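Researcher: We're reviewing a set of sequences before deciding which ones to prioritize for further study. For each one, I'd like a predicted 3D structure that I can look through quickly. This is 1-deoxy-D-xylulose 5-phosphate reductoisomerase. If possible, include the structure in C-alpha cell form so it fits the rest of the review sheet.
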Amino acid sequence: MRSLSIFGATGSIGESTFDLVMRQGGPAAFRTVALTGGRNVTRLAEMARALQAELAVTAHDDCLPALRAALQGSGVEVAAGAQAIVEAADRPADWVMSAIVGAAGLAPGMRALRHGRTLALANKESLVTAGPLLMATARAHGATILPVDSEHSAVFQALIGEDIACVERVIITASGGPFRDWTLEQVRNCTVAQAMAHPNWSMGQRISIDSASMFNKALELIETREFFGFAPEQIETVVHPQSIIHAMVGFCDGAVMAHLGPPDMRHAIGFALNWPGRGEVPVARLDLAQIAKLSFQAPDEQRFPALRLAREVMAAGGLSGAAFNAAKEIALDRFIDGSIGFLDMAAVVEETLAQISARNGLGNSPTALEEVLAMDHLARHTADDAVRARLEKR
Ligand code: NDP
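Model: Here's the predicted structure for 1-deoxy-D-xylulose 5-phosphate reductoisomerase, in C-alpha cell form for your review sheet.
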C-alpha cells in the first residue's frame, strides 16, 4: 500500500488532493502518514478521520487544543507549530504533497527531499526562493520532484520522451486574470474582492490576487527557470484568456507541443499522484467545438510590472528570488489589509529589490536553507519599511 502525506491539506490544492485520494480508495488504498493545516482545524480533523491519518499538525500553537478536541478518540496523533510541521516530513511516506502557501512551505519540502521522497510540488515559492538548493538536495538524496503547478505539469508532460537539448523555448500561458481588459486607472482603484475574482480558476485567496497582479505568472517564470534549467530568454509567457492550453514546448525542428486541459487543478495533481502512469481523473472532458476559439495576446508589462521584475530576478540570480518572494508576500499582506493599493504592490517589491541590491547585494546562489531564510527575513523588513515610507508620504 502506498503511503502519503499532505502538507497544506486544508487549502485549495490540499482539498483537491484529498478529493482525488478519497476517489482512488481513501484509507483502503493509501496509508496516510501526516496531514498539516493552519487555522482550519475542524476541516483538518475531518480529513484526518476520513483518511485514518497517523498524525495531524496545525501550524499554530493556539489551535492545538481545538485540534486535540476534534480528534479525541480517533487514534490520530496531534501536534502544533512550524517545527512540528517540518518534523512531520521526517515520517516515512512514499508521496508527499507540498501545498502550504508561501515561503512557509519551503522547510518541510526540503526535509522530505532529504529523505529521498517523491515530492509533488505545488508550493511554487520553494523553487522561487531556493531553486538551486532544492534541486541539488533532490539530486543528492535520490528524491523526485513532480511539478504540480498546471503550467509546469504541462511542460513536464510535453517533455516526456523528448531530448531536452532539442528544446528551443517554453511558453507558459496566463489567463490575464480579472483585470486583463481593465485600464491602468481602473486597476489602480480595485478592491480585494475584485482582485480575487479569477475568471477561470478557483484557487486560494493569495494566489488569486497574485494572478490578478501577474505576480503569480512572475513566480512561474522563475519556477520554470529553476525546475527545468532553461535560460531566461527561452521562457516566454502569452496571455490566453480561455486557460485551456497550460503551456507549450517549442523544439529545434519548429514543432510546438501544447498541453490542453480544463482549468481544474485535479488534472495536474492527479498526474502527480498517478505518476509514472496515468489514472482516471474526474475532470470535465474538453469539448473543443463548444470552446470554438482559443485566443492569445502579448502580456502588457506596463500594467503588469511583475513580469519585468521576474526577468530582472532571473538575470540577477543569487538570492534575488527569495527577496522577490518575501517582498511580494509583505506587499500582498498590506494590500489585503487595505494599507496599500493594488499597483503599490509592484512598487514595494521593486523598491525592496533595489534597496537590498544597493545596500547588501542580492547574494550568491543558496547552499543552505539558513541563507534563504536570512534573505527572506531581510526582505520582509525592507518591504515593511517601503510600505511605511509610502504611507507617510500620503
Ligand atoms: P490556500 O491558501 O488555499 O491553502 C494554504 C494551505 O496552507 C492551507 O492548508 C493553510 O492552512 C496552510 N497554511 C497557511 N499558512 C501556513 C503556515 N504559515 N504554515 C503552515 N501552513 C500554512 O493555498 P492554495 O491551495 O491556493 O495554494 C497552495 C500552494 O499551491 C501555493 O504555493 C500556491 O501558489 C500553489 N498553487 C496553487 C494553485 C491553486 O489552484 N490553488 C495552483 C498552482 C499552485 P489553513 O487554511 O488551515 O489556515
